[in-house]
Write a structure and sequence with these properties.
Helices cover about 25% and strands about 10% of the residues.
Length: about 260
């Protein structure tokens, strides 16, 4: 129950775009993968969890589940990048000990000032209007288009994790001619990155490109992979953590010239 409360709190924090401290992120990842921050006793006792956009994986999920392997991968890299991360014996932090914790807001109305009526679905209590009162005009949908998503800064732990992911991807493609998206996709999926997190991008000067979505529990981390004749060029960048923003929609400043090798 306590772990669920922490995870639920973290989810709420993500929606409010509150940055998470390194120990909190690592503890949350470890809890979800290591079955309540405990040690793994046997394969049948392992617990796993789905990503931010998928449902939870059953406790008896097969070890070859792509999302389970992905969670184990990002947890391992995150722990390596967080020297202050709690170990197996650390207790799950209480919600009030986490960054961004807020006390319940004070009542909107004081004693004897509560207007009549029951709260609506949003928790607000409507105030009855006089019969001769003029009704406010109905709101109309805004014609202003949403601004394109832009690259966001990475935290220290995200930069470290991004560097680790970039290094392992670069090593996997070393001395490999990567001139097609199919080759890139096949290699990435063999490296524990689920196909659902690999997104094709328009080619860059004829070279295939893909973006790898590594966002999880408030993280902004993503990778951009560009194929070359002898491997790949990998860049870590930050994507907004909100679920309605796709990594393919993030606008980045051009940093790479046309790959030549």
């Amino acid at each position: 129950m306590l772990m669920c409360a922490v995870i639920g709190f973290l989810h709420g924090a993500c929606m409010r775009s509150i940055p998470l401290a390194k120990p909190v992120l690592v503890a949350a990842l470890g809890c979800m993968v290591l079955s309540g921050c405990g040690t793994q006793n046997a394969a049948t006792d392992q617990a796993s969890a789905g990503s931010a956009v998928s449902t939870a994986t059953p406790l008896d999920a097969p070890l070859d589940d792509p999302e389970t392997r992905f969670l184990e991968l990002i947890t391992r890299i995150t722990v390596d990048c967080a020297p202050d991360a709690p170990d197996d014996r650390a207790e799950v932090p209480q919600p009030e000990d986490l960054p961004g914790w807020e006390e319940a807001p004070p009542p909107r109305y004081g004693s004897g000032e509560t207007p009549p009526g029951g709260p609506d679905t949003g928790g607000d209590i409507p105030v009855p209007l006089p019969s001769d009162a003029t009704r406010p005009p109905e709101s109309t949908p805004s014609a202003v288009k949403p601004k394109p998503a832009r690259e966001v800064p990475l935290t220290g732990i995200e930069r470290c994790s991004g560097s680790e992911h970039a290094q392992r991807v670069t090593e996997a493609f070393k001395n490999t001619e990567t001139t097609s998206y199919q080759v890139m996709h096949t290699t990435l999926t063999s490296m524990e990155y689920p196909a659902s997190r690999i997104h094709r991008m328009p080619s860059h000067a004829g070279a295939p490109r893909a973006r790898l979505d590594l966002r999880f529990i408030g993280s902004n981390l993503a990778l951009e992979v560009t194929g070359t004749s002898s491997g790949v060029i990998v860049e870590a960048f930050g994507a907004p953590e909100t679920e309605d923003v796709k990594v393919t929609d993030v606008k980045r400043k051009p940093k790479l010239d046309a790959p030549t090798s």
